[in-house]
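pasting for ref
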Amino acid sequence: MSDPLPAHVRELVTEIETEIGESDDAVLAAPIDGSRAWSMARDHDNGRVEDAVRDILVEIGEDPTREGLVATPDRVHRMYLELTAGYHVDPERLVNDAIFEVDYSEMVVVKDIPFYSLCEHHLLPFFGTAAVAYIPRGRVVGLSKIPRIVEMYARRLQVQERLTQQVAEFLNERLNPQGVGVVIEATHLCAVMRGIRKPGTIMTTSAVLGLFRSRDRTRAEFFSHLDRRAPGA
């Protein structure tokens, strides 16, 4: 069966799933079934998305046949496939045996992870940074996998609260650690460009599991790490 994803989207999915030097077989693997985005990608040649974009242009009073807009429906379709590429990432391929047995039980923190996502309420971007921490129970995950996990869930239609929880639950299920903490700070263009129109508004969400939830000292240590500037910053 041929790959139904456009080449630029398949390239992005592969980039999220794999490390430099890993097997090229991942490029040929099939995406995850079951999402509406998968159905959209499978049918990407039937023109439904392009037709819908043309209808929107007409509805707002534009002429979809004028020079600047003729190619817009196709560009919008390609854009949404790219921005929702996370639906097609295989979590197992992303982890790809990068979980290691290590005798280490102190907090691991990865912060200042940039991400871009789409608010599912208005299809406008929200973007910011994520901080992820966990306390191993004899198992750790490769450093580069944590930003990739954030990327996998960010490249979907999202609300920030769900995105935060999904990252935490993914690590909790794969590592069975003593605890997981995730904090995300983001700017939402739906609050900047429309509605309340308040530039500079930042939304912060957190998800804490295990020791991060039950032990105040652990939670406080996590938040203290977030306040520290990275070396050279």
